[in-house]
């Protein structure tokens, strides 16, 4: 599971990334600070079953006050500018780092103080960035397909090979599924037996539709702390069909850092925090925390955690399942309680879970037990979010 951050330069992608992962990342108030992609481990948060079951868990990651942190890889790339596909800015080749991404977070400067080039501006319309960014993503995808289409299409026709299978294997890096291909072909009414007869426009439309399906996107309306942000947010929400989450990455970064340093108690995603040892804070820190508190009161959270959660649970429709060895104590072999939290696509079966845990376990899978009821699950039953499962394997 991988989530990519995209957007124009200087919008706060690296700040968002740093807040989400606490990785050591450079942030600056000028365009193209990031050149090579930053990679790191962020998290989605879910309610851990430990509270409901009244057990104390031993997570491989983290669980704080019943909030379980499930790891998600994150990727922050360079800023994209209009006509990047023609080589402007840093071009669009760096987007290839995002091939592996399952979903994208588009970080916008909602305050209108940064233009599409990442330069300071007044009253810039952030909606323009949605249009140009989607256009550039489409050029990127089109190029990937157009480069190979002639050879690819004539080869599969000559050798009489299955279109879907071949497309999946040739472009496997893009995280395409058969379902994605089917939906796209049907929607565009294309003939999959004659791909060599597709016009340039057909290939381009095919790439665009596939881009939308394989790289679903959510908007992080960042820099909500700045004055014009509120009005722009209202306006943007009316003009886009994409989900928009108000964000203040800087506030999230300040809170996570302060929490690391033991200055505050804060659980990412929550609407409040507690200052510890207030008397030790400098005046500047106090003012900073007051500003952060205003944001939390106004928008319910800094939006960073909410955006990642929405990307994974709403856009990608994932669920979290807890595999254990002992159905009574919810432990693994070593006695760790609820050690693993696994992200799976909704609709996954216990066998899919077994493969996700380990391919050997998948290979020797014979069944599963729902640990809350103690009952054996039927093989075709799909897993539910929050389910605790014991996998049964051949001895
Ligand atoms: N006011 C405000 N400023 C922010 C916020 N998030 C980031 N910034 C500032 O925006 C500027 C750019 O931040 P970066 O995180 O480097 O932006 P980027 O999108 O990664 O930029 P490139 O790597 O150049 O594409 C820095 O000065 C940040 O401090 C925010 O929530 N509010
Ligand atoms: Mg950056």
Describe the structure.
By secondary structure, the chain is an alpha/beta fold. It has three domains: 2-126 and 216-311, Rossmann fold, CATH 3.40.50.300; 136-204, Helicase, Ruva Protein, domain 3, CATH 1.10.8; 318-393, Ubiquitin-like (UB roll). Helix content is 37%, strand content 19%. It is built from twelve helices and 14 strands. It has helices at residues 13-21, 49-53, 127-158, 163-170, 178-188, 200-214, 229-239, 249-260, 283-299, 304-315, 350-357, 359-363; strands at residues 2-6, 38-47, 62-64, 67-76, 103-109, 217-222, 244-246, 264-265, 274-275, 318-324, 342-345, 365-370, 375-377, 388-393. The strands form three sheets. Strands 1, 2, 3, 4, 5, 6 and 7 form a seven-stranded mixed β-sheet that branches. Strands 11-10-14-12-13 form a five-stranded mixed β-sheet. The chain binds guanosine-5'-triphosphate (GTP) and magnesium ion.
Please render the helix and strand layout as text:
Layout: E1 2-6, H1 13-21, E2 38-47, H2 49-53, E3 62-64, E4 67-76, E5 103-109, H3 127-158, H4 163-170, H5 178-188, H6 200-214, E6 217-222, H7 229-239, E7 244-246, H8 249-260, E8 264-265, E9 274-275, H9 283-299, H10 304-315, E10 318-324, E11 342-345, H11 350-357, H12 359-363, E12 365-370, E13 375-377, E14 388-393
Parallel strand pairs: 1-4, 1-5, 5-6, 6-7, 10-14
Antiparallel strand pairs: 2-4, 3-4, 8-9, 10-11, 12-13, 12-14
Helix pairs in contact: 1-8, 3-6, 5-6, 8-9
The chain binds guanosine-5'-triphosphate and magnesium ion.
């Amino acid at each position: 599971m991988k989530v990519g951050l995209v957007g124009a330069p200087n919008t706060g992608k690296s700040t968002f990334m740093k807040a989400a992962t606490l990785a050591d990342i450079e942030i600056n108030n000028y365009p193209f600070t990031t050149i090579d992609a930053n990679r790191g481990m962020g998290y989605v948060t879910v309610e851990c079953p430990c509270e409901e079951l009244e057990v104390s868990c031993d997570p491989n990651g983290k669980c704080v006050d019943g909030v379980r942190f499930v790891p998600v890889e994150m990727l922050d790339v360079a800023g994209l500018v209009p006509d990047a596909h023609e080589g402007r800015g840093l071009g669009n080749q760096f987007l290839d780092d995002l091939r592996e991404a399952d979903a994208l977070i588009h970080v916008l400067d909602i305050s209108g103080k940064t233009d599409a080039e990442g330069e300071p501006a007044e009253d810039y319309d952030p909606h323009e960035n949605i249009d140009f960014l989607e256009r550039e993503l489409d050029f990127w995808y089109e190029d990937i397909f157009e480069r190979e289409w002639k050879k690819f299409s004539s080869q599969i026709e000559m050798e009489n090979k299955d279109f879907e299978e071949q497309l999946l294997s040739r472009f496997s890096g893009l995280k395409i599924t058969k379902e994605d291909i089917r939906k796209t072909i049907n929607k565009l009414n294309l003939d999959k037996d004659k791909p060599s007869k597709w016009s340039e426009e057909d290939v381009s439309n095919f790439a665009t539709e596939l881009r939308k399906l394989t790289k679903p996107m959510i908007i992080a309306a960042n820099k909500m702390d700045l004055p014009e942000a509120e009005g722009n947010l209202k306006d943007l929400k009316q003009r886009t069909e994409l989900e928009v989450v108000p964000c203040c990455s800087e506030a999230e970064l300040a809170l996570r850092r302060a929490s690391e340093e033991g200055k505050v108690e804060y659980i990412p995603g929550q609407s409040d925090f507690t200052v510890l040892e207030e008397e030790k804070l400098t005046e500047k820190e106090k003012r900073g925390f007051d500003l952060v508190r205003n944001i939390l009161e106004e928008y319910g959270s800094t939006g960073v955690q909410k955006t990642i959660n929405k990307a994974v649970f709403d856009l990608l429709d994932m669920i979290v399942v807890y595999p254990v060895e002992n159905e009574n104590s919810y432990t693994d072999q070593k006695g760790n309680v609820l050690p693993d939290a696994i992200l799976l696509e909704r609709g996954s079966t216990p066998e899919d879970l077994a493969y996700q845990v380990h391919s050997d376990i998948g290979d020797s899978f014979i069944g599963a037990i729902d640990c809350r009821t103690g009952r054996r699950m039927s093989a075709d039953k799909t897993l539910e979010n929050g389910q605790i499962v014991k996998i049964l394997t051949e001895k």
